[in-house]
Design goal:
Blueprint lengths: L7 H16 L8 E6 L6 H12 L3 E5 L6 H11 L17 H11 L6 E6 L1 H7 L2 H12 L6 E7 L2 H6 L12 E4 L5 H8 L4 H11 L3 H5 L7 H9 L5 H13 L5 H10 L5 H7 L5 H13 L3 E4 L11 E4 L2 H10 L3 H5 L3 H19 L1 H11 L9 E6 L6 E7 L8 E8 L8 H11 L11 E5 L10 E3 L1 H5 L4
Parallel strand pairs: 1-4, 1-5, 2-3, 3-4, 10-11, 11-12
Antiparallel strand pairs: 6-7, 8-9, 9-10
Length: about 475
């Protein structure tokens, strides 16, 4: 497909799976099932469309849509117009049950040719009728797996998709798992043609690596130029994308959605979230946070050191959703009335400080990909803080998490437009690091900066180019 960039690892996984089906065509059970999961709007469907187009094999692509009893009719309509070789099995027939639908699907699948069947948003089917999962298991075991078919069960509800392959569930060990992540910072840089690594990370933080948002980015445009364009149009995908995702996950007024709004506005601790949500009771807040963390919308983190800590912090997983909740969502009415310029100016004033916090998990991921370097290594990379934020360390490397046996490095991040990481910044890190359990005078110290590191004494200094190379 035109404009498709990246996803080579995922495409290779799918191609290898299809090749495996083909190589086992004359065996008893050549069929292969895969559970494909990824966040909403991360590009799962487009990836699969590209894979199918390039594979040039008979296929059926059905997307469930929470329409209850209509799903069977829609499935039959999709099947009869698909490229499967025996689609006449569905001609003039509307199955009454999924048992009947899968019986017809088995009849439609070719026995002498590899094919692909995609059931997109599979959890929408099982939410309405949990017995459907068992029905798929029965037909897979008895019939479908004996055909040379690659069956892809796809979903955006991460927790529901992960649960498919857990002990006690009907589809346990019936399929392999594949995760479709957001585009990497490197892939974003390639799509938006960022001239520098610094601007590539800016683009990644704004779009969250969501392909639909990157597609809106004018080639070579700055963050400011992009935001000016998308905030000027209330129907742009940047403005509407997060709202549609929220509406799909939670109804307006849902407790978890209200909690997410507070976290997105900048509240990170349990007590501050409860206070910002109007004095929410602990039981209710725990319930809402459990929903958000189980769906991987919010991540819970604790300080990384050799001593356990209960000073948890919460953050929104997706950088785009973080930005939207902070700068866009609260101001939708002014964007709707054509005053996106006010929203843009507000974002301009606070972007640098917001970015300084938002970049931290990206730097940690880059380090996990890059290490070991210069003898420095870590099994886990996190941060350290206390309830009073004295000290607060941006980077902690350890042998494991959440409670380490040993600390392997500490580090500071300074991510400002022009200000370097100075000797004063580094000296502050030296002093504060000694307050972290597990750190001593021999622990290596790392300096990370958006511009330059002018300090001396760091065991390792990294800039945007170094970090971006983690995804090369």
């Amino acid at each position: 497909m035109g404009g498709f960039v990246g996803r080579q690892k995922e495409l290779d996984t799918l191609v290898n799976a299809l090749s495996r089906v083909g190589s086992h065509m004359n065996h008893g059970t050549p069929g292969l099932c895969m559970f494909v999961r990824g966040r909403r709007r991360v590009g799962k469907s487009r990836l699969l469309e590209v894979f199918i187009e390039r594979a040039e094999v008979p296929h059926l692509f059905f997307t469930a849509s929470q329409q209850g009893g209509r799903e069977l009719r829609l499935f039959a309509e999709e099947a009869v117009t698909s490229s499967l070789s025996n689609v006449q099995a569905f001609a003039g027939v509307t199955p009454d049950t999924w048992d009947g639908a899968l019986t017809l699907l088995n009849a439609a699948l070719p026995a002498d040719q590899v094919s692909v069947v995609v059931i997109d948003e599979f959890p929408y089917l099982t939410d309405g009728d949990p017995s459907i999962e068992g029905t798929f298991q029965k037909h897979w075991d008895r019939h479908l797996s004996k055909k040379p078919v690659l069956l892809l069960l796809v979903g955006s509800n991460l927790a529901a998709m992960e649960a498919l392959n857990t002990p006690g569930r009907p589809l346990f060990e019936r399929g392999t798992e594949m995760v479709v992540p957001p585009l990497s910072p490197r892939e974003v840089a390639d799509i938006v043609s960022s001239p520098t690594a610094e601007e590539a990370f800016d683009a990644y933080l704004i779009t969250g690596g969501m392909p639909m948002l990157c597609d809106e980015w004018p080639t070579g445009a700055t963050v400011d130029e992009y935001l000016e364009a998308v905030l000027d149009e209330s129907s742009s995908r940047f403005v509407t994308g997060a709202l549609r995702s929220l509406d799909a996950e939670f109804p307006t007024g849902a407790l978890a959605r209200d909690i997410l709004t507070q976290i997105g506005s900048g509240e990170m601790t349990f007590s501050n979230i409860a206070r910002a949500a109007g004095g929410l009771q602990a039981t209710s807040l725990n319930r809402g946070l459990e929903i958000l963390t189980s769906r991987r919308i919010v991540v819970r983190r604790v300080p990384l050191s050799t001593k356990p800590s209960r000073d948890a912090r919460y953050r929104v997983t997706d950088p785009y959703m973080q930005f939207w909740l902070k700068f866009v969502g609260p101001y939708l009415p002014e964007i709707d009335r054509g005053r996106g310029d006010r929203t843009l100016e507000r974002a301009r004033l606070s972007f640098s400080s917001w970015r300084g916090r938002a970049i931290e998990p990206i730097v940690r991921e880059a380090l996990q990909r890059l290490l070991p370097i210069n003898g420095i290594d870590a099994g886990a990379v996190g941060g350290y803080w206390t309830r009073t934020n004295v000290p607060e360390i941006d980077l902690i490397g350890a042998d494991r998490e959440p409670v380490a046996r040993s600390i392997t490095f500490a580090g500071s991040i300074k991510w400002l437009d022009t200000a370097p990481l100075t000797q004063a910044d580094f000296n502050e890190l030296v002093t504060d690091a000694q307050l972290v359990p597990g750190i001593d005078a021999s622990t290596p110290l790392i300096a990370v900066s958006r511009t330059v590191v002018t300090a001396k004494g760091a065991a390792l200094s990294l800039g945007p180019e170094d970090l971006l190379s983690a995804w090369t």
